[in-house]
Amino acid sequence: TVILAAIALSLMAVLMGCNTPFNLDEYKTTAKAEIENCVIVSDYSAENWAVVLELIEDGKAAITAATNKAGVDSSVTEAKTQIDAVEKEKKMGASYSLQEAFDKGLLTKEDLQNIAYYHNDDSMPVFPESLDAGIAEAIKRDFVHHENCQDKAHEIEIKYYGTYDDSVAVLIYCQLSYAGVLYNETVDDVFFYYGSPDKILIWKEKAEIISNTIVLTVQ
């Protein structure tokens, strides 16, 4: 019957799909991309990044020379192991949400109000001082793994809202669109609104929080 014939054809299609031959060249291409995408340049010093690039090329060469899937997998594992052994740049500071910073005594309510003044209304003037370029780079390096900026270190931008007793108020975001979506938060009755999930953060250079005491680390 027609129904039985249709079922038979469906079963044949499934079986044929299961028997699709393994394509080693495609597997190698995917493996090479996996090695290339497992690192981010801002994690390394210029010297160590050169080492990483060399290890990536060595890994890709080993993948090219592999004659089977097991060989490709082994080459990927070996390349990642060697890359993981390369020293990364240490984080330059610690970061906190506005609420965390306020709770820990890093910000006063007056500080919150000042930050909100420059943030909430696009018609308000930009903060009158510029963020130090060195601090900006340190913040970018620390936040390169920001949840909305994975593999987009070159697209990270910083909006600066002032420094309050060494606590730097910044909004870090990527060039992504969230049209029509609004977010907000309230800290001690001070309101902040956002046009994206990215929220203002407080960054403190080389600092650890112990209870409510700031301890500057010495390197």
Protein topology:
Elements: H1 2-18, H2 24-36, H3 46-65, H4 69-84, E1 93-97, H5 98-103, H6 109-120, H7 133-142, E2 157-164, E3 167-173, E4 183-187, E5 190-194, E6 200-205, E7 207-210, E8 213-216
Antiparallel strand pairs: 1-6, 2-3, 3-6, 4-5, 7-8
Question: Outline of this structure?
Answer:
This protein is an alpha+beta fold and 219 residues long. It has helices spanning 2-18, 24-36, 46-65, 69-84, 98-103, 109-120, 133-142, and strands spanning 93-97, 157-164, 167-173, 183-187, 190-194, 200-205, 207-210, 213-216.
Distinctive features:
7 helices; 43% helix; alpha+beta; 219 residues; 20% strand; two-stranded antiparallel ribbon; elongated; four-stranded antiparallel β-sheet
Q: What do you see in this structure?
A:
By secondary structure, the protein is α+β, with helices and mostly antiparallel strands. It contains seven helices and eight strands. Strands 1-6-3-2 form a four-stranded antiparallel beta sheet, with helices on both faces. The model is unreliable at 207-219 (pLDDT under 50).
